[in-house]
Amino acid sequence: MRDSTSTPAASPAAAPRPFPLLLLGWALPLLAATLGGFCGDWHWLLDLMSHFRWYYLLAAAGGLVVAFLRRAGIATRTVLAAALVLNSVTMLPYWLPVTQPAIRSAGAASERVSVISLNVLRFNTDTAPAIDYLRRRSADVVTVLEVSPEWGRALESLADVYPHRLITARPDSFGLAVLSRWPLGKPVVADFGGTGYPGIVSDVERPAGGFRVIAIHPYPPAGRARGERLVRYLHATAAAAASSPLPCIVAGDFNATPWSAGFRAFATGSGLRDTALGRGVQPTWNARNIFMRIPIDHIFAPPTATVVRRTIGPDVGSDHFPVEAELLLPAR
User: Fold this and answer.
1) Domains, the chain, ranges and CATH?
2) Which string of b and e fits 192-218 if b means at least 16 CB within 10 Å?
3) Which residues pair with 299 in a beta bridge?
């Protein structure tokens, strides 16, 4: 007789959970992009990956929270933690306090130099907001990028505020200008690195002691040849700054974030200090897209200078925000 007692069927193996696998499939490319950004010297596409560390950091932090809440596997959590740590360590200098010369009460007012760098966007035909902003801020020295003939005429209207200026307007995106409240000594237009993209080099005859200002705007690194030109341009600018007989300030649209190969080479070769260090990441582009903003506009100062203030200015109609810095620059 057959035993009527039924034996419970064995439970089928638990089916893999789709969400943790999906999270791992998202975390691995995030870590790959993070690591690729360290290899920008090898290929321009890898260097492009370095520009978005701010977003990698946010994505890794958010992903790690989700991984713990949804009890994702150890592999997923490890990958996300690695991306979080690598990007955090790379960006940490922009939040850590910076050792710099103390502010001295004696002579501090005469040593103060305020600087603005602004890419006005040559396609922006409404010049009034930017011109009003520059007039209101009335910085000591201003570097202006993407100066078209129309923008050149608009900048001339600031002659009462900036009686000393060199404006080199161009129909493309590489017109430049340096505006100054103090006399400019021997301003020249330089072709950095033989790239065909200009920069302006000028001494500034400040009563408390002269300094040099270099305004730059290399071509964006879109493609191998242009990426190589950008690196060449920044190398040549670094050499010009390092060889300056006067304290040197370099300001402009670098088309490079602090984590890219060209930027790192410039910072090392110039001997100057990024004024944003210790003040957090301050994205300047794209002003029109809140979800895609990276820091590509910069002001560098001598290590002997004290950075009193460094911030991002208001929206003036460009796709870039202005960069503002106030320095104590001792006379040599």
Assistant:
1) 18-94 (no CATH), 108-328 (3.60.10.10)
2) bbebebbbbbbbbebeeebbbbbbbbb
3) 251
Hunting for tokens 């691995």 — which residue is that?
Answer: 28
As given in the structure block, the two tokens for residue 133 are 């902003």
Three-state DSSP class for residue 236: helix
Structural contact between residues 199 and 217, judged by C-beta atoms closer than 8 angstroms: yes
Residue 115, SS3 per DSSP:
strand
Dist CA 142 CA 228 (whole Å): 28
Contact criterion met (CB below 8 Å) for 37 and 46: yes
One digit per residue, the tens of pLDDT, for the chain of length 332 reads 444 444 454 445 444 556 566 777 778 999 999 999 999 888 889 998 999 998 999 999 998 998 888 888 888 889 999 999 999 999 999 999 888 777 665 567 778 999 999 999 999 999 999 999 999 999 999 999 999 999 999 999 999 999 999 999 999 999 999 999 999 998 999 999 998 899 999 999 999 899 999 999 999 888 888 888 999 999 999 999 999 999 999 999 999 999 999 999 999 999 999 999 999 999 999 999 988 899 999 999 999 999 999 999 999 999 999 999 999 998 76
What is the layout of strands, in order, in the sheet containing 211-216? 184-191, 198-204, 211-216, 248-253, 297-301, 273-274
Instruction: Please give the backbone phi and psi of residue 212, each rounded to the nearest 5 degrees, phi first.
Output: -110, 140
Cα dihedral value 71, 76, 78, 81, nearest 10: -90
